[in-house]
């Protein structure tokens, strides 16, 4: 087992995921509780995450000294590197140019971390994200890699098995990062890798049974992969104690409601209740334009709909519905709340996490809470979901409402739905659907002047978004060729009444997010 000490980085769970990929079981614990966890779990290796705090500032988090002194191998990343070096007698300073994004490191010497991956004298791309830096290494440390702005990109004390990186090896934008982490686990710490998704399925089924007991559960299906996988997994665990509910909020894409209901009832043969709640959602959203207010309103209405359905189900006299199941994923958790009690910052209230009203009476079952999107896809295949369904692009719970900055109206949803359908149609025709992680149209609250035929137009702008990603935590915009964009823009302007201009979003994440709200 590996202990990950969390200093509140947005990407701590990516470390866990890289460790799982290497076939090793791990647990994340916040720095404030790490000493207890360490004593209880007796891990064979420890990883310190990054974090948003600044080591030179008074009161910033420190790693438990007992862990540092225990003699187990430690991999310390970014903030973890800084606090470890400071605690071992080195020095950390702020005030340097902050560095975000890609950097190239040069390898100066080899060590166990680099074995079979990095060679001396060569350059490799990595992902940096930091303000402070270590300016003096502790005794016994040596530099193994440098970059222009990072004199200690990799520094280690091989004798004491302390390995530190200034960059983030856990993100996919550090292409060799997973192999460096695997080397730390297998070569430095000597841990074998035999953990699998089949093991996860079996563990989750017994965890769900233990959590739920004889109680009844309803599961909100959104039409996306996550809630479907959650539903099938929970059904495997508790059978007809589960009822699935599909709330159509009028913020779905074209044809989606029919597809979801048909596919779910047909393929899975799990009972499904279909609720048409478009009027309630659209009237509650009228006049709201703050993104968080929109998200929270949608979250509240979902819960109202689920609670009403729970009461209806319970009226058969076979007992109350005590649990609400959701397909919440890790990125939803980390970007919504500081779940560790550590210092990570709220980016958005995802409706199925931070958007839940406090007064909700049902308890939550969230079997995918530890997983990332692509891990959910692996689990979906493991559970026998059809490939076409497993490969669907993600679709957010709040639906098209968060792709329409400003107020939402039925008319705007209609325009957006049409533009989005044309865009996805062109993507499919070009054979690009599976190469893109997620693609959608956004309807901007901006009108611009155009000319069509001999007339002046004054209509809306549609922005197109397409990204590649592995887990939704970081993403790059998709580099279409211009002919594709031109073809799609022409179709949208010609076929969708009310739109006279199309733009393409070329922002990566970070600094953008994938959705616009
Ligand atoms: P962002 O915009 O935060 O999105 O970069 C990352 C991924 O999460 C999806 N997303 C959501 N999924 N409920 C969901 O189920 C939500 O409230 C929500 N908000 C964003 C988004 O579509 C992308 O795949």
TrEMBL record:
Gene3D superfamilies, per database record: 3.30.300.10, 3.40.50.880, HUPs
GO cellular component, one term: cytosol
Database matches in SUPFAM superfamilies: Adenine nucleotide alpha hydrolases-like, Class I glutamine amidotransferase-like, GMP synthetase C-terminal dimerisation domain
Domain GMPS ATP-PPase: from-to ranges: 195-392
Catalysed reactions, semicolon-separated: XMP + L-glutamine + ATP + H2O = GMP + L-glutamate + AMP + diphosphate + 2 H(+)
Record Pfam families: GATase (PF00117), GMP_synt_C (PF00958), NAD_synthase (PF02540)
Alphabetically ordered keywords of this record: ATP-binding, Glutamine amidotransferase, GMP biosynthesis, Ligase, Nucleotide-binding, Purine biosynthesis
Gene Ontology terms, MF aspect: ATP binding; GMP synthase activity
Function per UniProt: Catalyzes the synthesis of GMP from XMP.
Assembly description: Homodimer.
Protein name: GMP synthase [glutamine-hydrolyzing]
Annotated source species: Roseiarcus fermentans
